[in-house]
Amino acid sequence: VGNNSVLSCPPQSNATMVTWKINPKVGGPCALGYRADQNKTDRTNCSDSMNWKFRPDRDPALEIRRVGIAHEGNYTCEVVATEGNFHKTYDLTVLVPPRLTLYCDDRGNPVCEAAAGKPAAQISWVRESNSTPKEEGHDNGTVTVLSKFTAYSTNVTNTTCIASHPAGNQSKSIAC
After folding, report:
1. Are 118 and 99 spatial neighbours (Cβ–Cβ below 8 Å)?
2. What CATH number should be reported for the domain whose range is 99-174?
């Protein structure tokens, strides 16, 4: 999320037409088109964040600027050339790194929260714990995971929470 993404299309030297057909999971479909005989591009219902990366006659790649969850969906590039028709399809999934916080509850137990990640983060503790994480889903598809550290012994002074996520792992330490 937040980065730019470039989706490539099968480049053909004799392309007569290139079309990107975009079907997001949220909202209506859109399309970008290019006709070589008229050297003309066209767009239908696409947001300004989606456009050709370069000139479509040289490279028909699609660039998505500032990728958001709303960009998730299917992206199909169709190239019509003298050699035939060529297709390439992407299923775009957007990763959202969670915000990691670690604090002490009113009983002095460490609580680790990986907020608004997509997909849900996996929380673990450096010292062994018998905690059971709780997940809360949000309307935008993100998930908050909450885990309370419960120690097997009472002589624990410093604990570390680790949030594992495809967008990157994070860790924080606390003494309660």
Report:
1. no
2. 2.60.40.10
